[in-house]
Design a protein that fits this description.
- The chain is α/β, with parallel strands linked by helices and about 220 residues long.
- The protein contains eight helices and twelve strands.
- The protein has helices at about 10-25, 35-45, 60-65, 80-90, 100-115, 150-160, 170-175, 185-200, and strands spanning about 5, 25-30, 50, 70-75, 95, 125, 130, 135-140, 145, 165, 205-210, 215.
- It has a five-stranded parallel sheet with strand order 2-1-3-4-5, sandwiched between helices.
């Protein structure tokens, strides 16, 4: 089931979209401000985002550049061509002017989701760790573990090549699209937090520091 995040502070429009998308078979998440949306995206990854521009706190224009590798359809009352061009060049995949036709919006959503690349298997497993790459959820020894966006990206990379050692430069380069805020100085903190979260339900230290090189999953 595909998940759509609606970022709109208009409760009526949000409720209408939630009902319509639910009937189309989508799971729906809601955010009522730009700040709330970014908090959600730290730990969850929807398949598509419907983004209003006029939001309390951070505006749609401000959060759009922070959304990486998730298709965004802008919903806005701004109908001028310049606004549309700027947003499409700024990262949006589509632009729908309010008021909109629900059938047309549903068709645009279906097209965007149909064009998503196939990322292969949805489940990664390693020594008691189960990572669902569709829902971005993680379990360790049967217990759910809540990961931040950066922690998820690191764990996914390590689990995709469990026998490989990744240098700090390789880790930063490969996760940069999903975690643009992760830096050389903060990487060790993220890895330390990830190790702790994996250790708590299992008693195991899953991530090994290879002296002078980088990090890998422990055998």
């Amino acid at each position: 089931m595909k998940t759509i995040l609606i970022i709109d502070d208009d409760v009526y429009i949000g409720d209408m979209l939630s009902e319509a998308l639910g009937q189309e078979g989508y799971a729906v998440m809601r955010a009522y401000s730009g700040t709330e949306a970014l908090l959600i995206l730290e730990s969850k990854r929807p398949d598509l985002i419907l983004l209003d521009l006029m939001l309390p706190g951070l505006s749609g224009e401000e959060i759009l550049p922070k959304i990486k590798d998730i298709p965004v359809i802008v919903l806005s009352a701004k109908a001028d061509a310049e606004s549309k061009v700027n947003l499409l060049l700024g990262g949006a995949q589509d632009y729908v002017t309010k008021p909109f036709n629900l059938n047309e919006l549903a068709a645009r959503i279906a097209v965007r989701l149909r064009n998503l690349p196939d990322g292969g298997g949805k489940i990664l497993e390693y020594d008691g760790i189960v990572l669902n790459t569709e829902t971005h959820s993680a379990e360790v020894c049967g217990a759910a573990v809540k990961l931040t966006r950066t922690e998820y990206a690191i764990l996914k990379l390590l689990m995709q090549k469990p026998s490989s050692v990744f240098t700090k430069t390789q880790l930063l380069d490969k996760i940069s699209a999903d975690t643009p805020d992760c830096t050389d100085s903060s990487l060790k903190i993220h890895i330390s937090n990830l190790r702790r979260k994996l250790r708590e339900p299992s008693g195991k230290d899953y991530i090994e520091a290879v002296w002078g090189i980088g990090f890998k999953l422990k055998k």
